[in-house]
Write a structure and sequence with these properties.
The protein is an alpha+beta fold and about 90 residues long. Helices cover about 20% and strands about 25% of the residues. It has 2 helices and 5 strands; from the N terminus they run E-E-H-H-E-E-E. It has a 5-stranded mixed sheet with strand order 2-1-5-3-4, covered by helices on one side.
Length: about 90
C-alpha cells in the first residue's frame, strides 16, 4: 500500500530534505514504523518514550484528524494522504 506522507519542515532533515515521501502501511501505527525503518530517528520526534504519538504532533489522514477517527489504528489504503503537523505555540 503506497501512502503519501507530507513531512513538516523541521523533520525534513531526517528525510533527505524531502517534503513528501511514500511508504506502505495498513494503519497510522504501521506508518510510523515504516517511516522509522526508511528514515531512522523520525519516530523519536513523532512519538514519546512509550511509543505514543506526542500531544503536540497532529496527524491528518485525508485531511481528517486521526484522533477523531481510530487514532493509531486508523486504516490506510493506497492513495491515502497523511500529513504530519507539529502544533505551533504563540504568545
Amino acid at each position: 500500500m503506497a501512502v503519501k506522507v507530507r513531512i513538516p519542515t523541521p523533520l525534513q532533515k531526517l528525510t533527505q530534505e524531502k517534503a513528501e515521501v511514500e511508504v506502505s502501511a495498513k494503519n497510522v501505527q504501521s506508518l510510523i514504523e515504516a517511516l522509522e525503518k526508511a528514515y531512522p530517528g523520525i519516530k523519536a520526534r513523532i512519538c514519546d518514550e512509550g511509543g505514543n504519538i506526542r500531544r503536540f504532533v497532529n496527524i491528518f489522514v485525508n485531511e481528517e484528524d486521526f484522533r477523531f477517527l481510530k487514532k493509531e489504528q486508523t486504516p490506510l489504503k493506497d492513495g491515502d494522504e497523511v500529513s504530519i503537523v507539529p502544533a505551533i505555540a504563540g504568545g
